[in-house]
Amino acid sequence: MDDNSRLQNQQHAFAAHIRNPAQSPPPPGVEDRRMRIYRELFFNNLNSFLRDSLPVLHAVMRPDAWRSLVRDFFVCHAAQSPFFRDIPREFLCYLEEQRGERADDPPFLRELAHYEWVELALSVHEDPVPPPGLDPTGDLATGRPLLSPLAWPLRY
Questions:
Q1: Is 20 exposed, middle or buried (0-12, 13-18, 19+ CB in 10 A)?
Q2: Is the peptide bond preceding residue 88 cis, with omega within 30 degrees of 0?
Q3: What is the DSSP string of the chain?
């Protein structure tokens, strides 16, 4: 096995252990004390980011239920985006596609997570407002109204 393969194997073992230490052993030769620092750092950063992105959902859940939810997301979901701002969307995908119904979940879990994600998504929306082609001096009664890219009609 060449050095690149060994390094890649060690990185995979490291990541697997950080995500799910109960199911994946640490990479060989790394002290548990050091791995514990990384396990806590990664989980706490994710927990903090989700808590700040979904503050109402966090507030309505029991602390142990919230922590369990974030842990399950961390263990089960393989994110498709490397960007931090996409973590709440990844979390929403996890809720919609992977988590399933749990007895201790609030009945509005997915809807509230979606609503809070929409708030965040609209705050970082990059389409120009007003959209190109809008005549700000036009006559609404004779012209064609344009829908703002920031208007997302939703119903829960």
A1: middle
A2: no
A3: --HHHHHHHHHHHHHHHHH-TTTSPPPTT--HHHHHHHHHHHHHHHHHHHHHHSHHHHHHS-HHHHHHHHHHHHHH---S---GGGHHHHHHHHIIIII---TTS-TTHHHHHHHHHHHHHHHT--S-SSPTT--TTS-TTTS-----TT------
Distance in angstroms (rounded) separating the CA atoms of residues 115 and 49 = 17
From residue 10, alpha-carbon distances to 18, 30, 37, 68 in Å are 12, 10, 17, 27
Residue 51: is it exposed, middle or buried by C-beta count within 10 angstroms (0-12/13-18/19+)?
middle
> Model confidence over 84-129: pLDDT tens digits?
889 999 999 999 999 988 988 999 999 999 999 999 999 888 877 6
